[in-house]
């Protein structure tokens, strides 16, 4: 039998944003995709080269508006639009299309939790029920049979990958998990906002969304599923003067008799053979500068000096494993491709 080499014809909605740019960067070298449609809102009508000069040498279609798209030549849509905007756009697409949504719109399975955190009733609740949460290393079986994949948020990816193996094995107390997370500014998107000006971000660091960030329920949803009971976390994000990267420092209390070596062993067992989720050698701390531009999630666990406590660290690139890279990993799963296809990018260093 000859192998199927028909290209997957993709559309990127929101191609003029940061995650859109990252999708294009990776997809132009993906051997099985053909980029057919790119959309923008304010940038619609412009060639990609004008919006993103780093892509000027690539053969890409001009940005158009969503309402101009002819969907008949498309197999899969990457939706990289602001959350809230996305649900109505996806509800209006032909139901034959596969969709990987990078926004938060379909990540929370419970409609009431969604309404409570996002401030309005969901406008496509039937799709919310259909969507499959695409944390690839944990839910690849579910993703393979999906039509609509909710690509996880950047902080939730960095927090859940190291914590889920520990909860699945009942190694840590579920009422004492502290997630201290730090993100680069690209996490906030390309839209001009005062809070993201150089003068507001450089030479300082600050916490935001304290005890109120909308990624807390997304993290809790995944951790509760793994633990088999309700888990609540203390989650505090911080904005760092860097462009890319998320570092999470997670503080846990271990179950009696459990050691940090057991936590490391659990992570190593869970992610043995995984191409992107990597447990570092004992004593080596993950760094954001070791994942830049790559789809890697680096993690490790350390004993604290306080008896019974441990520190679990993870690092990802928010635009790759935290968004566009994981979205492509999900597409690979949807089409039965090797998950590494188009994603074997070596991190950029320094
Ligand atoms: N940045 C990150 O690290 C991560 C982002 N995400 C999520 O991915 C999605 C995209 O994020 P990001 O790329 O950073 O965002 P950007 O702000 O950089 O880009 C947003 C894109 O959406 C388009 N857009 C804005 N409003 C509308 C509208 N009303 N109708 C149609 N298109 C619109 C913009 O077009 P134009 O500029 O032409 O107006 C642009 O192409 C968001 O939901 C975000 O939360 C998820 C994980 C990580
Ligand atoms: C630094 C920064 O501002 N980060 C964003 C998170 C980006 C992300 O993953 O958001 P979605 O859930 O919308 O996909 C924030 O805190 O809102």
TrEMBL record:
- Cell wall biogenesis/degradation: present as a keyword of the record? no
GO annotation (BP), single = L-arginine biosynthetic process
UniProt pathway: Amino-acid biosynthesis; L-arginine biosynthesis; N(2)-acetyl-L-ornithine from L-glutamate: step 3/4
Give the GO cellular component terms, alphabetically: cytoplasm
Task: Provide the reaction this enzyme catalyses.
Answer: N-acetyl-L-glutamate 5-semialdehyde + phosphate + NADP(+) = N-acetyl-L-glutamyl 5-phosphate + NADPH + H(+)
InterPro entries for this protein: AGPR, AGPR_AS, AGPR_dimerisation_dom, AGPR_type-1, NAD(P)-bd_dom_sf, Semialdehyde_DH_NAD-bd
Subcellular location field: Cytoplasm
> What EC number is given for this enzyme?
1.2.1.38
The entry's active site is: 154
Q: Please tell me whether the keyword Cell wall biogenesis/degradation is annotated for this protein.
A: no
Entry's PROSITE patterns?
Answer: ARGC (PS01224)
| One of the record's GO molecular function terms | NADP+ binding
Alphabetized UniProt keyword annotations: Amino-acid biosynthesis, Arginine biosynthesis, Cytoplasm, NADP, Oxidoreductase
Which intervals hold domain Semialdehyde dehydrogenase NAD-binding? 9-146
Function as written in the Swiss-Prot or TrEMBL entry: Catalyzes the NADPH-dependent reduction of N-acetyl-5-glutamyl phosphate to yield N-acetyl-L-glutamate 5-semialdehyde.
Q: Which family does it belong to?
A: Belongs to the NAGSA dehydrogenase family. Type 1 subfamily.
Q: This chain belongs to which protein, by name?
A: N-acetyl-gamma-glutamyl-phosphate reductase
**Organism, as annotated:** Rhodospirillum centenum (strain ATCC 51521 / SW)
Classification of source organism: Bacteria, Pseudomonadati, Pseudomonadota, Alphaproteobacteria, Rhodospirillales
